[in-house]
Fold:
Amino acid sequence: DRSVKIAPSILSADFANFGAECQAIEDQGADWVHVDVMDGHFVPNITFGPATCAAIRPHIKGVMDVHLMIAPVDPYIEAFANAGADIITAHVEAGPHIHRSLQAIRGAGAKAGVALNPGTPAESVEYLLDMVDLICVMTVNPGFGGQKFIHSQVEKVRKLRAMIGDRPIHIEIDGGVTPETAPAVVSAGADVLVAGSAVFKGGSVSNPAPYGENIRAI
Ligand code: DX5
Ligand code: ZN
Structure:
């Protein structure tokens, strides 16, 4: 489905080659580049911060979609906006003041996203709908690539799409997206699919064609 955007997660890329990896996935048809920021506190893994985002920014022509799996969020929003993030997504579980965080993201000039862990109900974003440009439904517990898709989340996507109504809000799916799991979430109303392991498998910067094949297969 051409109206569905594919956002490869560079969590599955070669960390010593982010610039070339971002160029390769865009050349191979990626719509957005999804950047997973982890702090070893909100999630049990550590990736990188705003300096790395700023370094890769010039290598991305399109949308840099930054997913913050960090707590607290607010002290770092400006740094990620200054690094060139087009979209900054914060977790509803990351602190007591998600509404304030979303205001701060828009205030810093970025589009605002809110992410929900698998155990968090759709209703948790009901009073945030006028604050967000994107809702990220986690279909794995965040922290690692290559995990198994959690099917109970398809129903959450359907609920969210109904709740959103005609507001211009993306529903993004993150975790375990493959050619097998994608159709159910797309028919439930998702329009952005993050995929890490399913995009990067079999390819590399010196052999990028598999990235394109994998993107087209989703
Ligand atoms: C999980 C990250 C995801 C992850 C997806 O914590 O937010 O973006 O990289 O990886 P796959 O597609 O391999 O599940
Ligand atoms: Zn992510």
